[in-house]
Input
Amino acid sequence: MGAKGFIVCGAILAAAGVLAGAYGAHGLEKHLDRYELSEAKLDRRVKDYEVAVRYQMYHALGLVAAGLLAMRRPSAWLGLAAAAWLAGTLLFSGCLYLRVFNMPVPGILVMVGGLSYTFGWLSLAVGAARSPIEMPPAMPTT
Output
């Protein structure tokens, strides 16, 4: 996937994150009431949902930023970062969403998603360290 694909995926994930956040604020607890959870379990699920939305949004913005950077200077490291963030969102946030709605998910998948997020940030760091520094063009004087 190239720069344009990173931006498109990031924008779609961000839009979905906004919708998920709105649902979390206005409908989640009502939905979870049907499971007849204890107060502690309900609180845990709401917190897990909030973490899933927050991490989805962070990494959606990361994907957009990677796309914008890749338009200026394409890099395999940016591609690795973007792919890792996309995988991390599907595994980490996706599995947390499933757990919140009472679907069994192996904990290892959530952990792999978190590691994918981390790998993405480390890939970005390596790519930035290996990239030659460019000064922006000087502002014209009048």
